[in-house]
Amino acid sequence: MTDRMNISRRVLLGTAGAGAVAPFVLSGAASAQTSQPQTSMEINHAMPPETNRFKLGDFEVLVVKDGARPSGKPGETFGTNQSPEAVSELLQKNFLPTDQFVNSFSPALINTGSDLVLFDTGFGEQGRESGNGRLLEGLAAAGYTPDDVTVVVLTHMHGDHIGGLMEKGKPAFPKARYVFGQKEYDFWTDEKRVGTPAENGHKAVLANVKPLAEKATFIGDGADVVPGISAIAAVGHSPGHMIFNVESSGKRLILTADTANHFVLSLQRPEWEVRFDMDKAAAAATRKKVFDMVATDRVAFLGYHMPFPSVGYAEKLDTGYRFVPKSYQFDI
Q: What are the pLDDT digits (tens) for 84-97?
């Protein structure tokens, strides 16, 4: 791993104490993005969900579209410390509508040759009525069964990342071991969440995550998941939010999870506050540090909520970054 990554890891870890955790609402197993009004996009259930497979050195990465959802009033989610006019102006400048935005949800499976490592699990059963929760379908379309997955890693414990851990009351990936962030797990399982705005999130973690704790390894910043994949603390969106550095045969990819939740509003204006960031100051500082690293090192990243297939690059632009989607870089 490069010296720059080591420096960046230390810097990111330093944000962990920045500010108090903001009040936060999760409804059941709903996600950090599901407490707002939502409508279902048209889904053709006769067709498998979108997937994208590409090589990263000797590894193979499969991205699965667990679902997508349009939501109204972007300024109520992004740039909440800005005027509605400023948010609308930035959207218009980037050829985007000002009255709606679309979030997609993209778990990723990495085949290292010795392990099949799944990062996050989507909405699961509770998302299917609204057209989400399609991870298992996507894995099947790519030729994998739940039994094939050997490691399940959670970047953090919001509902759109943990909802697919259980299926019909049983572990959805019965032969896997689990990797959870210690700080994240401790926060959400703490009984202190009862009676606070985070109580529903606490209940969701008790239902979906805690039953798997006996098969879990609890990690922090710098820990290795498997050879070639290591964790980096990137807090703010949640108390123990982590991103992951993936390296194989000289190729590198950063799984940035929910560091940025919109390819324009979060990247071009990383300092803007986001409704679902629990510690907004720490989240903004983390965005700047992570994407400065991504842009400076010219390394690809996979963002859970970036436009599918969720992989691209960040180019420095003014005080923020421009998202450059991948095309054929991984195919030749």
A: 999 999 999 999 99
- What is the end-to-end Cα distance of the chain in Å, rounded? 24
Is residue 330 included in any domain, yes or no?
no
Q: Mean pLDDT over residues 82-110, rounded?
A: 97
Strand duo 100-105 + 108-111: pairing: unpaired
In angstroms, rounded to a whole number, what is the distance separating the alpha carbons of residues 176 and 183?
Answer: 21
pTM of the model: 0.88
Kindly state the average pLDDT of the residues 86-115. Answer: 98
CATH, residue 87: 3.60.15.10
Residue 190: inside a domain: yes
Among 205, 292, 250, 157, which residue's Cα sits nearest to residue 28?
205
In a 10 Å sphere around its CB, with 0-12 CB exposed, 13-18 middle and 19+ buried, how is residue 239 labelled? buried
Give the chain's domain count.
1
**Domain contains 181:** yes
User: Regarding beta strands 151-153 and 116-119, do their DSSP bridges make them parallel or antiparallel, or are they unpaired?
Assistant: parallel
Q: How far is CA 18 from CA 106, 156, 236, 281, in A?
A: 28, 18, 8, 7
The pLDDT of 258-268, averaged and rounded, is 98
Beta carbons within 8 Å of 251's beta carbon, 6+ residues apart:
55, 56, 57, 59
Check the CA dihedral 15-234-131-263 and report its sign: positive
* 27-36, 59-68, 106-115, 322-331: least confidently modelled range: 27-36
- pLDDT of residue 5 exceeding 90, the answer is no
- Establish if 332 belongs to a structural domain: no
Tell me what pLDDT residue 81 has.
Answer: 97
Instruction: Provide the residue range defining the domain that includes 277.
Output: 3-324
- In this structure, the number of other CB atoms found within 10 A of the CB of residue 248 comes to 20
Q: What is the mean pLDDT of residues 116-145?
A: 97
